[in-house]
Structure formats: structure tokens, C-alpha cells
Input
Amino acid sequence: MVSYAEGVRIWEAAERLTGDPNVGLTAGARCRPDQIPVLGTLFGHCADLADALRRLARLVPMVIRGVPVGFDGDSGTFSYTSPSTTPHGVDAMFAAVVQLARHCAEAPIAPCEVQLQSAPPRHPEVYERFFEVRPRWGAKRSSLRFTRATLAIPFRGAAPALAALLEERAPALIEPAGAERRDLRAAITAAIRASLQDGLDPTLSRVALDLGTSPRTLQRRLADRGLRFTALRDATRRALAEEAVLTGSEPTLQIALRLGFASRSSFERAFRRWTGETPARARERSLGQGSGSSPSE
Output
């Protein structure tokens, strides 16, 4: 798994390498069910689009840790709230959802409304051609909305019993060998992240309490799996620091204090050790790359 900030940089690199300012949309529009072995197969066996979106909203957080995805059946809205306004990841997710639906449905599929948190791109007509509706940019959350008639369009490969079985078995199918080690790492990382975001010191004792175990037991489980608590804490603090510096406008001192550093200078030293540059330089570079490639970044 990569951090959110690392994911943003991967998409930025993809844009530079391809020269495509809409690389996320392009990638999602080319998605096929066989390229997403578990979710794609499950999606295709759902009864209709409403069933597929409901199950997808439950399973996406297994693939993208902690992603705030939801589906409101009453309004027909599939939504995602991104921690930043960078476009490519959201564009890829939404385009893939629509493309998978078009591949599986027995009738044409198009959302009746698309809202995106990112700024308007240079060529909005590319989005309009794909979604068959002009998106609204600068929204508070990103969402796809479908009419009731569209949600009820049956899928060609509908097999609800098989879809239910795949959803039940999804955790084991998605996690390859070594899942227990990754589950422990993910649980500890989530607890550390929550403590830092609440302004608390993520000590081993505090994290053990959050996970419902004792410090000694947690330490033993870490040792059995070749993991070190201090390394996980450092990696989580680094990920949060990079997210805050690269994708937000929060002052450096405020970030430092929120992440448990005694001073701005101690945070800057740690950030330089992690990345090889100061927070100010990293933010300047990130903003410079965004303005140089697409106004939506």
C-alpha cells in the first residue's frame, strides 16, 4: 500500500510521462472487469447497477484503505470525499465505475449528474463526451448520480447468489498470502494516524488500548511478524506530514504541533531527513508542478 501523498505523486508522474492532462479519466475509461479480478467479477454478477454500486461502496475501502465511499440508494448517488482537490485518482475511480457499468449493463448507461472537487480542467469537453453530461467542478464532494431507471437496468451476467458469495469471500480473496501481517500493520497504522490527528501521542500503550490488547501482547505480535512499532509510527507521521505539506495550505508550525513535534525546526529537520528537502520547498515544488501541468491540480 502507498500513502495518499505517494499516490498523488504517482498520478503526477503518469501525467508527465504520458503528456495527458486527463490521465486519470483516460485510465478509468479503459477499465475492464478482468483488470480488477475480485471487484470486477463481483460487479458483473450483480443484479443491476444499484446492486453493483451498493456492493462496490462496501468493498472499495478494502482496496483503498479508509477511503470515504458511499452509495445512497434513495438519491441514486455514489460519492467519494477526497482529502484534496487533485483530480486524477477521483477521475479514474468514477470513469472506471461508469465504464464497468457500460460493459455489464443490457442498456446504455450514463450518470445524470457528475460533481467533482477538483478545479475545471483545460478541456472540459473530454469529460462531457465520456460521462455524457457536463460535470460540475469545485464541489464539496465528488459524486455520480443516476436516475432510478438507470439504476434498475439489469446486468447481462446477473447472478445475485454468486455476487453475494463473492462479497462474503472478498476479504480473503483480496488479501494475498501474509494477510495477517498486513492486517496488523494496517490496524496499528490506523490507530497511530487517529491518535496523531486527535493531537495525542501515539505511544505503544495507547495504540494497544485502542486495539483492545495489552502492550506486551502487541509487542510480541509485532516481533513475530518482523515489524517495529517505532518504524510504523515514523512512517505514519511521515505520510501525514507529506499529505499536509503537499496537498494543503496549513502553516508549517501548525502541522508540526499537530503531529507531535516540539517545534517547527524539529519538524523541518525530520521532513528533510524523510524527503531531502524542506517543507517549504516541497510545497513550492508541488504547487509549481500543478500549475505547470493542469489548472485542476
In short: The radius of gyration is 21 Å. Residues 4-174 form one domain. The chain has a mean pLDDT of 87. The first strand starts at residue 69 and ends at 72.
